[in-house]
Structure formats: C-alpha cells, structure tokens
Amino acid sequence: MDREWGSKPGSGGGASSQNEAIDRKERLRRLALETVDLAKDPYFMRNHLGSYECKLCLTLHKNEGNYLAHTQGKSHQTNLARRAAREAKEAPPAPQPLQPQKRKGNVRKSVKIGRPGYRVTKQFEEESKQRSLLFQIEYPEIEFNAKPRHRFMSSYEQRVQSVDKRYQYLLFAAEPYDTIAFRVPSTEIDKTTPNKFFSNWDPDSKMFTLQIYFKTKAPETKKPQPPLQEIVQEFNSLNDLGPANVLSRHTLPDY
Fold first, then answer.
1. What is the pLDDT of residue 97?
2. What does the sequence similarity comment in the record state about its family (predicted)?
3. Sign (positive/negative) of CA torsion 240, 246, 247, 249?
4. What is the pLDDT of residue 11?
5. Which terminal Cβ of the chain has fewer Cβ within 10 Å, N or C?
C-alpha cells in the first residue's frame, strides 16, 4: 500500500507546507482571541456589512478571528512600526523637567597678572559734616570690553582677617587682575543723597572711579558732639586703607 513519505502505518499523510501555514494561523487566531481585547484596538472596525476592517492596513476580514490572525502577520506589524516612527518624528519634543539652577560664578578666562594700581583720597564735607572716600583704580591691561566691578562685604563674610564688626570691606575686581579689598569703617554708606555715591569707568584712561560718603551719626544726648578737628583726626587715625590682602574671587554685582 502506498503512503506518503514520512507517515506511519495507520496515520494520516505528512502535512504539507500549506497545511502547516493554515494550522499556524489557526493557533494564532485562538491565542489572540484569548489574550487580545478588540474593544481597545484602535484599528479594529466593524462595517455596515457585518465584516471587519483594519483601519491601519485597509484590509477586510470575515470574522474577528481572521482579523486577529492578520494583526499577528508581518504586514500589520510593519505598518505599526512605520506609524510609530512617523508619530515620533512629528510629535513636539517633550518638555524637560526643570532643573535647579546652579549659581554661575565668574569663570577665570586668563592668567592673573597681579594687583592694579590705586589711589585713595580721604575727604570731608564741612556743610554736611560727612566723611568720604574717593577710590581711583587703574586697569591698563583690562580685558577687551570688560568693566571693573565692585561690592561691599561685611567682616563676617571674609575669611582672610579676624572678624571685626567695626569695619567692612570694599572689593574691586576686573580680569585679569587680582581682586583687591579695602577695609573701611562699617558706618552706613549714603546711597540716597544725590551725588553722594557714584562710580565711573573711563575706557580711554582705563581708570575706575568710585566715590562714597558715610552717613553722619546722630549725636548722643549725654555727650556733646566733638569738634570738627577731632572728627577729622578720628577719621585719619583709622587703620591704613591699603588692600587687606587679596581675597578669594567673588561674584560682584553692579551697584
């Protein structure tokens, strides 16, 4: 009795490739019916004729099982990949979470070349009884388009000298020079009266000028105000106004 190659006596003939493909599709259909919820499939649609359509591939299917078998096929999976790639390309970039901003410090752009030249002039205005200081700092090698900056620093901020609340520090900075600091009385600076507090940068002479006035203290009720000469003598007897050592670099806001 003739039988197909590979079959056993009493059994059916060997399955052909066509039969294997049909069997595979049937297994996929049954598996899909058990695991896939068609109600959540955006491409599944039932038309008015009672058949089913795939809106992605524009194919027509007789029943749900046939549609599910189609979704497992190569053409449907390829179209899904193309659709995802196109949507990713056309979608606007997702907003990035806000990161805490780090304080930006001044970046050293060049090698330091030492301290600038300076001149400090002590002044006294008889009409207002106010003492003042005129700072003139020379920056002949300042970087192109750069401007000197200055700031006031309390005695508690600096780490070079011992803390003394009677004094404050006035800092000047400009690249590529070292930052210099002057120790001045901690008396309040007069920044409200016109022409009592001003600064100027002359790009031609490369000189930065700063004028500050100290507010006058109210006289004590039980102690008469010292005469003008004593006030001037007291002011002139303060510690020298030279640089109090080169301080570490700081971010210097414009005043």
1. 72
2. Belongs to the SF3A2 family.
3. positive
4. 58
5. N
Q: What is the pLDDT of residue 208?
A: 92
Q: Decide: 143 and 110 in contact? Cβ < 8 Å.
A: yes
Buried b or exposed e, range 131-168, using 16+ CB within 10 angstroms? bbbebbbebeebeeeeebbbbeeebeebeeeeeeeebb
> How does 89-100 read in b/e, with b if 16+ C-beta sit within 10 Å?
eeeeeeeeeeee
Structure tokens at 99: 């990161």
| CB burial of residue 110 (10 Å; 0-12, 13-18, 19+) | exposed
CA–CA gap between residue 184 and residue 250 (Å, rounded): 18
Q: Which residue type does 198 have?
A: F
Q: How far apart are CA 241 and CA 181, in angstroms?
A: 9
pLDDT given at position 89: 85
Closest by alpha carbon to 240, among 162, 167, 163, 152?
167
Q: Are 215 and 189 in contact (CB under 8 A)?
A: yes
Question: What stretches in the chain show pLDDT beneath 70?
Answer: 1-15, 32-33, 98-109, 218-255
Which are the contacts of 12, defined by CB distance < 8 A and separation ≥ 6? none
β partners of residue 137: 118, 208
In this predicted structure, what is the pLDDT of residue 22?
79
CB atoms inside a 10 Å sphere around CB 171: 21
Per-residue model confidence (pLDDT) at position 255? 38
